[in-house]
Amino acid sequence: MSFEELKERQRIAWGAAPFEKIEGSIAVMHDDLVGRLAPQPGERWLDVGCGTGAVSMRAARAGAEVTGVDLSEVMVETASRRAREEGLAISYATGDAEELPCPDASFDVVSSSVAAMFAPDQAAAARELARAGRPAGRLGLTAWRPGSGVARTMQVAARFQPPPPEGVGNPFAWGTEEHVSALLGESFELEFHEGDAPQTGESGEALWEYFLSGVGPTRLLYDSLDPERREEYRRASVELYEQDRRGDEIYQSRPYLLTLGRRK
Question: Can you give the C-alpha Rg of the chain in angstroms?
């Protein structure tokens, strides 16, 4: 499988379920990112991997002139509809984080919330984040930490799907200061902050159903399996969530790294 084939699978997968149904599970992260970037009226803001519009709508409400880009046309359509319903003038387009559809140095702010981390060619994505920002412009990224609940969930899923192509970057490396510094340190003055977006639920089964209903890659993978493997995937996921049981509820810690940058 090539990187292009992997990205095509990602494009289809992220459109396989209505992510807006579970968007609230990472609202604390989006609030943290947008709050630290402090959008100003009239600033040009690019949201890379905009998904269903959570970050871009937050920035637009503060008066920024926002463009959102995502690999999935389904995500873009959903984000566009939600912005129209709220009366927000946001420009959305399909696009690749490794080849952003914008001129050089065209944005005051470039953001990506747990999105650019999934680009297969991490060096290319980093170059594009830098290229899109103007001199002295701001950068804001979030990425799940290695070993977080999300990382462990994806490790379970990996047991039921083909291996990624050779050379693909580990997305959770974006959750370490060392890796981000290596990718972006030449182009940005960087600072790092830690956060947590914990997931709670009444049971592992309830959390499995919740994410199956709104995470496209989970839904698509589950639907692609034969009945026996489906049950194995469900059971393994439920068991993982139950490892984080605290009394009457599940409490899964999901730490993330928040990177802020100033374009050199």
Answer: 18
pTM equals: 0.95
Domain 3-145+166-202+257-263 listed as CATH 3.40.50.150: yes
Q: Residue 3 contacts by C-beta under 8 Å, 6 or more apart in sequence? A: 120, 121, 165, 167, 168
Q: How far is CA 193 from the centre of its chain?
A: 17
- Say how far apart CA 170 and CA 161 lie, in whole Å: 16
Measure the CA–CA gap between 95 and 98, rounded to whole angstroms.
9
End-to-end CA distance of the chain: 37
Q: What is the pLDDT of residues 124-160, one digit of tens each?
A: 999 999 999 999 999 999 999 999 999 999 999 999 9
Q: Write down the domain spans for the chain.
A: 3-145+166-202+257-263
Q: How far apart are CA 187 and CA 144, in angstroms?
A: 22
Q: For residue 103, what are the CA distances in angstroms to 59, 92, 128, 129, 193?
A: 21, 16, 10, 12, 30
Structure tokens at 98: 């490794």
Q: What is the mean pLDDT of residues 54-70?
A: 98
User: Residue holding tokens 């839904």?
Assistant: 219
